[in-house]
Structures are given as structure tokens and as C-alpha cells.
């Protein structure tokens, strides 16, 4: 079964750091570009970051640029999001999502992990 | 940034009837548009990509149309499991993707 499973979310104080993980299974992870997408409580979807198959190319939304770092370990079939200098507005469910091979739509999503930034 | 605007914000339709959801882009995205369905407590699910191609396992009652800046998702003969929030997503401005704010499809 093709699957993405996120972990690492939790409650963190403003200014703190957190590292999210996304474990992939059921497909050849290294063959796919990957993304992080977030959803604030009761709100819509916001793309956060993209990484190429090799990990050499990365892009970020302006809202997280300079604070978040995306990475991957193809040997471990895992995607990561290092989040530093967290703010209250970063509170959201964070999803990892796979770029479809036939397009750049997101064809597989994880179940999400909740990040709450609060004192 | 390409801004995606969905309308209406909420659509009330009776089971068995047709639902038509709209998405407008602030500039042309060609046919690089996807639609997702999200139910409460669940992750989004890809419904349509390439503006009109159904994703794997999506029933034929879902159809997408449009190109450029105007897009439509049509669900013919609504089933109970179709009531959810639907998002459009442009991936033309790769990889600076943007989503619409969503349309909630509710039972009338």
C-alpha cells in the first residue's frame, strides 16, 4: 500500500524548534518530488516547501523562508521539515504530499501531524 | 503569486442533484489545475488533475473543465459521501503552488 506517515508534531513555545518526519512506503521514494503543505485550524491549505528527487533543489513559501528547512534521506525513505523560530501563526496540521508522476498535482498525502505554537 | 478564488464559499445541494463549483486564477495557469476533496479530520484527496483528468479510483460522476483562468468541478448526482470541502490548486507556477480557499459542499 502506498503510504505517507508524518510524525514529530506537538506543542512548542514561540521561538522554539521542531523537526517533522514523513515516512514513505509502498513506492520508490527516490523517484518522486515531495512537498510539505499545512492547514491552520479551520482554514485552507497552504503550500510550505518543495524538494526535488535528489534533494538538491528546494523551494519555500515566503512565510517560512529562512526559518524552515526541507530535506530527505532516500536511503531511509524519509522526508523532513526542520522548523526554527516558530511563531503562533505556524500553528497548523502539517501534511507531506507526493508530486504525481503524471503532473505536479499532489496524488498521495499523509494523515498529517499537528504543530501548536503557544506559550 | 497566483491567487486562486473559489466560489461559492458554501454550496447547499440535495442528494441526487448536480453540484457546480468554480475556481478562478488571477492569471493563466493553462490546464495545470487540480481539485481535492477533504472530509473532516482527513487529509485532502486528489480528485482531478490537468483540469479534467480524474485521478485513480475517482467515480465518473466527478468531472472537471476549463483552462486558462476559469475552471469548474461538476459532481453529477450527488452521493452522501460527496459532501465535503473542495479545494482547487494551481501548479502552473511550479513549485510556488497556491490553493483556493475552498468550497464547502453541504447537504440541503
Notes on the structure:
Chain A is mostly beta strands and 119 residues long. Helices cover 0% and strands 51% of the residues of chain A. In chain A, the strands form two sheets. In chain A, strands 2, 4, 5, 6, 9, 10 and 11 form a seven-stranded mixed beta sheet that branches. In chain A, strands 1-3-8-7 form a four-stranded antiparallel beta sheet, with no helix packed on it. The model of chain A has no long low-confidence stretch (mean pLDDT 96). Chain B is an all-beta fold and 108 residues long. Chain B contains no helices and eleven strands. Chain B has strands at 4-7, 10-13, 19-25, 33-38, 45-49, 53-54, 62-67, 70-75, 85-90, 98-99, 103-107. In chain B, the strands form two sheets. In chain B, strands 2, 4, 5, 6, 9, 10 and 11 form a seven-stranded mixed beta sheet that branches. In chain B, a hairpin with a 2-residue loop joins strand 7 and strand 8 (70-75). Chain B starts with a strand and ends with a strand. Chain A binds chain B through residues 33, 35, 44-47, 50, 59, 61, 95, 100, 102-107, 109-112, and chain B through 32, 34, 36, 42-46, 49-50, 53, 55-56, 87, 89, 91, 94-102.
Helix content of chain A: under 10%
Class derived from helix and strand content of chain B: mainly beta
Based on secondary structure, the structural category of chain A is: mainly beta
- Average pLDDT confidence of chain B is 96
- Low-confidence runs of at least 5 consecutive residues of chain B: none
Radius of gyration of chain A: 13 Å
**What percent of residues of chain B adopt helix (DSSP H or I)?**
under 10%
Taken as a percent bin, the fraction of beta residues of chain B is over 45%
Rounded to an integer in angstroms, the radius of gyration calculated over CA atoms of chain B is 13 Å
SS elements, strand count of chain A: 11
Order of helices and strands of chain A: EEEEEEEEEEE
* SS element count, helices of chain A: 0
| Largest interchain contact | A-B, 21 and 25 residues
| Cα distance spanning the termini of chain A | 39 Å
Shape of chain B: globular
How many DSSP E strands of chain B? Answer: 11
Share of β-strand residues of chain A:
over 45%
Overall average pLDDT of chain A: 96
Amino acid at each position: 500500500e502506498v503510504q505517507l506517515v508524518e510524525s514529530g508534531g506537538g506543542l512548542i513555545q514561540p521561538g522554539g524548534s521542531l523537526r517533522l518526519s514523513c515516512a514513505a512506503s509502498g513506492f520508490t521514494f527516490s523517484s518522486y518530488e515531495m512537498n510539505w503543505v499545512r492547514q491552520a485550524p479551520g482554514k485552507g491549505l497552504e503550500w510550505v516547501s518543495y524538494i526535488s528527487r535528489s534533494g538538491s533543489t528546494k523551494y519555500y513559501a515566503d512565510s517560512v523562508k529562512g526559518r524552515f528547512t526541507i530535506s530527505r534521506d532516500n536511503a531511509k525513505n524519509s522526508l523532513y521539515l526542520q522548523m526554527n523560530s516558530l511563531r503562533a501563526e505556524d500553528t497548523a496540521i502539517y501534511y507531506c504530499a507526493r508530486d504525481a508522476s503524471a503532473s505536479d498535482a499532489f496524488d498521495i498525502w499523509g494523515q498529517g501531524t499537528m504543530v501548536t505554537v503557544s506559550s | 503569486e497566483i491567487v486562486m478564488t473559489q466560489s461559492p464559499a458554501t454550496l447547499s445541494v440535495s442528494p441526487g442533484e448536480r453540484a457546480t463549483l468554480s475556481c478562478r486564477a488571477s492569471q493563466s495557469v493553462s490546464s495545470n489545475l487540480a481539485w481535492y476533496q477533504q472530509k473532516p479530520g482527513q487529509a485532502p484527496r486528489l480528485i482531478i488533475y490537468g483540469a479534467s483528468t480524474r485521478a485513480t479510483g475517482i467515480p465518473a460522476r466527478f468531472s472537471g473543465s476549463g483552462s486558462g483562468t476559469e475552471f469548474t468541478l461538476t459532481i453529477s448526482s450527488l452521493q452522501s459521501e460527496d459532501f465535503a470541502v473542495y479545494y482547487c490548486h494551481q501548479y502552473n507556477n511550479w513549485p510556488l503552488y497556491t490553493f483556493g480557499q475552498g468550497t464547502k459542499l453541504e447537504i440541503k
